[in-house]
Amino acid sequence: MAVLSKEDLxxxxxxxxxxxxxxxxxxxxxxxxxxxxxDWKRTTIQDACKxxxxxxxxxxxxxxxxxxxxVRTEDNEERVARLLQSPPRIPGTHLSARKVAGSTGISxxxxxxxxxxxGLQARRKTKVHRITxxxxxxxxxxxxxxxxxxxxxxx
Length: 155
Fold this sequence. Notes:
The protein is mainly α and 155 residues long. It has helices at residues 6-17, 22-31, 42-54, 74-84, 97-104, 108-118, 133-140. Residues 55-77 are annotated as: Disordered.
């Protein structure tokens, strides 16, 4: 069935109430140039009529129709947020999105979506090299500022 707007379904409901058959509604829509001819198919109108009659004239979408949400529950969102955040005094101990996905059973894409909606960033942790003590001393100015004397004075 093609997608019909709410206004289209209301119009079909009114025409059904006036006693039109799906065939007559189709011909009415083709002949009606005030609202513009639409490329509705006859089967689309028949399906819409069946749906409206089955719902006793209601054109709203039934509550609960569609696939239920199974992954995006509050419990899962809390678990993902807890695993993606490092404790305040232990930075860098959060898990990557891949490890969170493996430990919770949620796909990586949903982990990233949950992180984005919570304002978190699921980033891969990168290992950095350790700075040796002599290099720390050299770069931190442990021995004082570097020599800035002009060597031309000694010549």
